[in-house]
Amino acid sequence: MAAAGEGAWRPADGEHDSYQSPLARRYASADMCFLFSDRYKFRTWRQLWLWLAEAEQTLGLPITDEQIQEMKSNLDNIDFKVAAEEEKQLRHDVMAHVHTFGRCCPKAAGIIHLGATSCYVGDNTDLIILRNASNLLLPKLARVIARLTDFAKEHAGLPTLGFTHFQPAQLTTVGKRCCLWIQDLCMDLRNLKRVQDDLCFRGVKGTTGTQASFLQLFEGDHQKVEQLDKMVTEKAGFKRAFIITGQTYTRKVDIEVLLALASLGASVHKICSDIRLLAHLKEMEEPFEKQQIGSSAMAYKRNPMRAERCCSLARHLITLAMNPLQTAAVQWLERTLDDSANRRISLAEAFLTADAVLNTLQNISEGLVIYPKVIERRIRQELPFMATENIIMAMVKAGGNRQDCHEKIRVLSQQAAAVVKQEGGDNDLIKRIQADAYFSPIHSQLDRLLDPSSFTGRAPQQVQRFLEEEVYPLLKPYESVMKVKAELCL
User: Fold this and answer.
1) For every one of its 490 residues, what pLDDT tens digit does the chain have, with 9 covering 90 and above?
2) Domain 388-449 belongs to what topology?
3) DSSP letter at 368?
4) Where do you find CATH 1.10.40 in the chain?
5) What is the Cα–Cα distance from 247 to 206, expressed in whole angstroms?
6) How far apart are CA 474 and CA 478, in angstroms?
7) Closest Cα to residue 202, out of 232, 169, 223?
8) In the chain, where does the domain assigned CATH 1.20.200.10 lie?
9) What percent of the chain is helix, strand and coil (3-state, nearest 5)?
10) CA-CA distance, 337 to 131, in Å (whole number)?
11) CA-to-CA distance for 202 and 408, rounded, in angstroms?
12) Nearest to 117 by CA among 208, 51, 48, 56
């Protein structure tokens, strides 16, 4: 059989006959995909050309109302086929769309892109998309936090075995553990909002950022050039523009944005790894639908496929942070074009991946299931060893000798451990203590000494204080969007 691309069999062309990004096809929301679509991008280019023309007209350049109206009427009239043909000839995407826009705006064709450079539409559109894409992510992240907050509040006092190094450790509570997840996500919410708030518009800066072309258009009037920059910035909905740019806005902006998303990816990976571990222990499960199949071979399985998907996508999101770091490092002088192809991929994929991860995590957090009896059984297996210090203290208070008691406990503990490890039996330390006459002074206290809630410290109180002081205030701006449910396409 011929190798692919060398006469190999191919079906008729169609939507299933060419590679399509799984991010768009399987995982990310339609809203996020639209923000990174050609239609949204090139429509925004046209909107930027219109804003520029309107501002230039207001400041006295010879641009007519008829030309402005013609541009307004054709913002959505994009002939993508013509634009592609133009780009194939010109090898310049911006000029291809200048010509395409000019074809449907013959009266305005001569003033479209007046005084601007390609980065006027390219970079400013990217900044608009980064801002608007963040607007899509922030409520989704807030909803994930809110769902986990409800879960943490409900289980604030439910004791569970803690783990360090994935080895049994002191008890915590289910709600307290969930707050560890929430705390990381709250940091991500604050970080992403800060990055969004820090976004500046590139504005109207010209070919190398000096605004020389606009200064010439306005015959040396510096004030009008500054007004032009300010007017277009306000039309685009930004509070401020960069004062200093080269041909592009500094690519360190992309670093800030993608690092915030990568940090979110790290948080989600940690949370979903924890869920997967707890699913293995049968203490917690993600939602599992009635018709869902866990394995094609092993019919009994309930694999945590949603959490696994989150981990898989989160790893991709984390690795994408390397792209803007390396791109910013190699920008020569006022600019070089080796950022372009990379940014087309990395910026879009970062937001689509973050969107997919949050959609999936919200779905998980809306249907988390815990199994208290399994949790209780595991506590019973480990708590007797943890309770030995309390038992020794109680014996001393009852008149016993600390050293004698410690030796008794040591011997009995080793015997019980042998039953667990060598025979596969249950931890019978308490039964051994109950059967030993030496411990008769505290036999009546054993139930109280072994109450799991007495081993969780201030975990319930910490949950309450954390939610009230840190989480609820952070979520307040998002109250109006909290009812949206997460549905997975696949």
Assistant:
1) 445 555 556 665 567 788 889 999 999 999 999 999 999 999 999 999 999 999 999 999 999 999 999 999 999 999 999 999 999 999 999 999 999 999 999 999 999 999 999 999 999 999 999 999 999 999 999 999 999 999 999 999 999 999 999 998 899 999 999 999 999 999 999 999 999 999 999 999 999 999 999 999 999 999 999 999 999 999 999 999 999 999 999 999 999 999 999 999 999 999 999 999 999 999 999 987 655 555 555 555 578 899 999 999 999 999 999 999 999 999 999 999 999 999 999 999 999 999 999 999 999 999 999 999 999 999 988 888 888 888 998 999 999 999 999 999 999 989 998 998 899 988 898 899 999 999 999 999 988 888 999 899 999 999 999 999 999 999 999 999 999 988 886 7
2) Ribonucleotide Reductase Protein R1; domain 1 (1.10.40)
3) -
4) 388-449
5) 7
6) 8
7) 232
8) 118-151+176-288+313-370
9) 65, 5, 30
10) 23
11) 75
12) 208
Q: CA-to-CA distance for 464 and 366, rounded, in angstroms?
A: 20
Question: 32 and 355 in contact (C-beta within 8 Å)?
Answer: yes
DSSP state of 26: I
Q: Which residues are catalytic?
A: 165, 295
Phi/psi for 218 (5° steps) reads -100, 20
Nearest 5 degrees, angle CA 133-CA 320-CA 313?
80
Q: Which CATH architecture has domain 118-151+176-288+313-370?
A: Up-down Bundle (1.20)
Q: Which of these CATH numbers, 1.10.645.10, 1.20.272.10, 1.10.275.10, 1.25.40.10, describes 34-104?
A: 1.10.275.10
pTM of the model: 0.90
What is the Cα–Cα distance from 85 to 106, expressed in whole angstroms?
19
Residue from 320, 318, 342 nearest 330 by CA: 342
φ, ψ for residue 171 (rounded to 5)? -70, 150
Which tokens belong to 407? 């030796």
What single-letter amino acid sits at 380? R
**What span, in angstroms and rounded, lies between the C-alpha atoms of 149 and 155?**
10
In the chain, list all ranges with CATH 1.10.275.10: 34-104
